[in-house]
Structures are given as structure tokens and as C-alpha cells.
Write a structure and sequence with these properties.
Blueprint lengths: L2 H7 L5 H9 L3 E3 L2 E2 L14 E3 L2 E2 L7 E6 L29 E2 L8 E7 L2 H8 L7 E7 L7 H5 L2 E3 L5 E3 L4 E6 L2 E6 L6 H8 L4 E9 L2 E2 L9 E3 L2 H5 L4
Parallel strand pairs: 7-13
Antiparallel strand pairs: 1-2, 1-3, 3-4, 5-7, 5-15, 6-7, 8-12, 8-13, 9-10, 11-12, 13-14
Bound molecules: uracil (URA).
Length: 234
């Protein structure tokens, strides 16, 4: 890959700004100044430095993030802070997408990646990856058997559909863990509304076999290895 393109992809500047940086001797390869913006480098093996600081590079990035309430599952927004705004160097330099969204007031596990194939597999209804949520309700849990059989709900465009059966494990008089394969608009909230209840706290604690690391406070994130990221499918 051309060095100017490599650095522009990582948001070090536009191609012409990077050319200026090269002319100023600020870009080095193994500590030796580069003089050609078109120079070809091997991003996986070459060590590029900007102002003497090594450039962090990975082809594929997988991040586990603990979304705090009040942050939008989006890349940018005029009104609310977004989850990608929580990212710091070096991960803020990568163009990462969200593997599924959580509501503004929902907390918990989000995966961010630049691996489009991986993202597609997680959100694909065909893969049926189970998402597990911790739920607290406004009223006692009561009879939830309808949710375990499959309940009729409205989707984001108010079209009716049959929600797939959910797995529910009570955790107290007004709380439970619910596992669902789908991720339709406000799915968990709508499920409990359908049985006359209301979700007052919602936190995603697992996507497939990947569980939110309890050591990650809200707003924190950590990089996953490729094989850790794959535990979603186990
Ligand atoms: N179901 C919801 O209702 N909200 C979420 O954020 C996720 C699942």
C-alpha cells in the first residue's frame, strides 16, 4: 500500500497534508525519513513512525465496548454523544461499524469492527445469534409464558410480526435474564409491554458465546483477538 494512502486511511491527514509531513521529514520507516509519498509499504510488517511515534495498525479490529446509557449507537449525531465518540487513540483512527444497536437508554455489550463479513454474520437473522439481556421491570414478572411461546409485536415501521420464542430466567420478583435471537426495534421492551409490563433497566450481557467483561465499566472498551471475537458463534 502507498504510504500516503496508509496514513490517510488512519486519519493522519489528507494525502496532500501527508505529502507536506513527508517533506518536513516527520514520517519515518524504521527511523529513516521517507521522501516519496508513493512509496509502497507492507502495513502488517513495516514499522512506520509519525513524529517518532510508531503507527498502530491492524487490518481487522474487534472491540468489546460497555455502552453507557445516554450514548447513541451511531457514528455521529447532533444531539447525543455517540459510542464511537468514546474511542481514543489508536482505535479512534479506524473506521469501525457497530454490530447491532442498543437503544439510547440501554447499556451493555456492543461489538465494534471494521470486518464487514463478521458484522454481517452477527446481525444476519439466518445465523440466529442469541443476545442475552439483564432486565428490570416496573411490575412483578408474573406469567411470561407468552414470551416463551412467541408473541405478536409491531416492528419499527409498526408492521405486525411474530417474535421468535424467548428464553427467560427469572432473577428476582421484578427481574430476569432474557435471550432472543432477533434484534428488531425495541424488541425486549415491546415484548414486556405485550404482557402488560414495562422495562425500566436493560443491559445486554452477551452476544452468542461472548459475554461482557465485568471488569469493563460503562464507557470502557477493550480489543478482542480474532479468536475471542469468534466466540460469538459458539
Ligand atoms: N431490545 C430493546 O428493547 N432495546 C434494546 O436496546 C435492545 C433490545
Amino acid at each position: 500500500m502507498r504510504i500516503d494512502r496508509f496514513l490517510a486511511n488512519l486519519k493522519y491527514g489528507t494525502r496532500s497534508e501527508i505529502k507536506d509531513m513527508i517533506n518536513q521529514g516527520r514520517i519515518t520507516l524504521g527511523q529513516r525519513p521517507i521522501d516519496d509519498p508513493g512509496m509502497l509499504i507492507d502495513p502488517d510488517n513495516d514499522s512506520v513512525e509519525v513524529d517518532g511515534i510508531p503507527v498502530f495498525y491492524r487490518k481487522w479490529i474487534y472491540l468489546m465496548l460497555n455502552k453507557p446509557a445516554g450514548f447513541l449507537s451511531a457514528k455521529s449525531d447532533d444531539r447525543h454523544p455517540t459510542v464511537t465518540g468514546l474511542l481514543r487513540e489508536p482505535f479512534s483512527r479506524f473506521d469501525l461499524d457497530l454490530c447491532g444497536r442498543l437503544d439510547l437508554d440501554t447499556e451493555g455489550l456492543l461489538i465494534l469492527t471494521n470486518d464487514g463479513e463478521y458484522l454481517h454474520q452477527i446481525i444476519s437473522p439466518k445465523k440466529d445469534v442469541l443476545k442475552r439481556y439483564e432486565v428490570r421491570l416496573a411490575h412483578p414478572l408474573g406469567d411470561y409464558s407468552l414470551l416463551e411461546r412467541g408473541v405478536r409485536l409491531l416492528d419499527g415501521k409498526d408492521r405486525p410480526y411474530m417474535a421468535k420464542p424467548a428464553q427467560i430466567v427469572p432473577t428476582g420478583p421484578d427481574g430476569c435474564i432474557i435471550a432472543i435471537g432477533e434484534g428488531k426495534y425495541h424488541e425486549v421492551k415491546r415484548m414486556f409491554e405485550a404482557i402488560g409490563n414495562q422495562v425500566v433497566f436493560l443491559k445486554r450481557i452477551a452476544i452468542g458465546g461472548l459475554t461482557l467483561d465485568p471488569a469493563l465499566p460503562p464507557g470502557a472498551y477493550k480489543e478482542l483477538t480474532f479468536s475471542e471475537a469468534q466466540t460469538v458463534f459458539r
